[in-house]
Amino acid sequence: MDMADLDYGFKKTLPLSLEEADRRVREELGKEGFGILTEIDVKATLKEKLDVDFRPYKILGACNPTVAHRALSAETDMGLLLPCNVILYKGDEEGSSVVGILDPRVQLGLTGREDVAHLAEEVRSRLMRVLEAL
Q1: 3-state DSSP assignment of residue 105
Q2: Buried/exposed 47-80: b ≥16 CB within 10 Å, e otherwise
Q3: 112: which DSSP letter?
Q4: Where are the domains of the chain?
Q5: Which of 12, 13, 54, 76 could anchor a disulfide with 2, C-beta 3.0 to 4.6 Å?
């Protein structure tokens, strides 16, 4: 379906339920060597903390251990920029979901280090393949 560029990432609208989109995202991330380190259920958290209703929305912290090790070896404090955020939320149209990723070039670009730019490009390529496969 629709793919959109954001100033800080990319997103794609899928003709899938949130549950199916979640399953597919995890499957495709796995094919690219990513595991999920963290998962935030934004809808449940906002209900619990603020007693407000919000659309079904998850933030997944995805990590490719090999690339993360290389980044942390280059600069120990690089962990401040890890993991890669992937969002999933219920789309505006019935039966649709949106998947978004933070652009690793923006994320690692915060370091100002040219020597890690190749890592950002590698992760970006992997994450774009995930979006394209969905």
Answers
A1: helix
A2: eeeeeeeeebbbbbbbbbeebbeebeeeeeebee
A3: -
A4: 3-133
A5: 13
What's the token pair of residue 134? Answer: 């969905």
Q: pLDDT, tens digit, for every residue of 9-63?
A: 999 999 999 999 999 999 999 999 999 999 999 999 999 999 999 999 999 999 9
The 3 state secondary structure assigned to 39-78 is EEEHHHHHHHHHCCCCCCEEEEEEECHHHHHHHHHHCHHH
CATH number for 3-133 (one of 3.20.20.140, 3.30.310.70, 3.40.50.2300, 3.30.70.890): it is 3.30.310.70
| Angle value at C-alpha 69, between 64 and 73, nearest 5 degrees | 150
In degrees and rounded to multiples of 5, residue 102 shows phi and psi of: -75, 135
